[in-house]
Design a protein that fits this description.
single chain; 303 residues; alpha/beta; Rossmann fold; 2 domains; seven-stranded mixed sheet; two-stranded antiparallel ribbon; 14 helices
Amino acid sequence: MSTFRQSMPWWLRIGAKIVLARLPIPYSFWKQLHLFEHGDMNQPHKALDGFLEHARTAVVLHEESALPYLGVDGDFAVLELGPGDSLFSAVIALALKASQVWLVDAGAFATTDMAAYTSLFSFLRQQGFTLPFKKEPDTVAEILKECNGHYLTDGTRSLAQLPSASVDYCFSNAVLEHIPKQDFAKMAQELFRIVKPEGVCVHRVDLKDHLGGGLNNLRFSEAFWEGSLFSRSGFYTNRIRFEEMLTVFTQAGFDYTLPRVLRWEHLPISRNKLDDAYRQLNDDDLLVSGFDVVLKKPVKDIC
């Protein structure tokens, strides 16, 4: 199935997903076929490795002991944007001594199969972590209760439920490019509101087209791409480019650093095939295929 999907041209993927997305079939079925997947963080080792990688980038891990941990005073709140197919991050954050976890997504995509979570518990214990459960959870609701976790599924609108200056550490992995374009600036402003003065955000952004790893999404006009035919068919990205996204974060109030920037050697598409709105962008911007960004509040806002 994977080889077949990879061999499909970008335009055929669009057509197939437009049709499939409108069939009355639940997400769990498409997940089994590896279609319309929301990441692969339902695999324990990948979930732990990804969490630790981003936390190290944010410099929020303490590693002077045998095992890494978050926070130093028993009060450390974590926010993940787009947990996708599992709520593993809540359990991992608990194992790393976080005191509270918020998980925000655009829908209730996380598995409720306890076998997946039991596998995670076992894996974390094998790695030497302690899970301070009062009682081994039997349901996802019990997991969230034990982790002081909150799973919110109304997309960026869910951020309004978080108190101001309540989050120490926020992260996402290939999620920001899927935030609806009209909601992106508001999302950045909300993050600035809810992050503590000394808090930090780390986001990994994938600017490829999610159709074949190029820039085929930039072929289309704004009206066409943002219309319901495309935006509700499982391949939507907001097409906010590198420099524009950084500008949005700056306008929201953040300072940023860029620990990782990936670039194509050559544009993966001819300029004359791009929509006019993107044809005018400079090569330095268009050649960025992905990046990690660290967001912090300016020192003047902390003082």
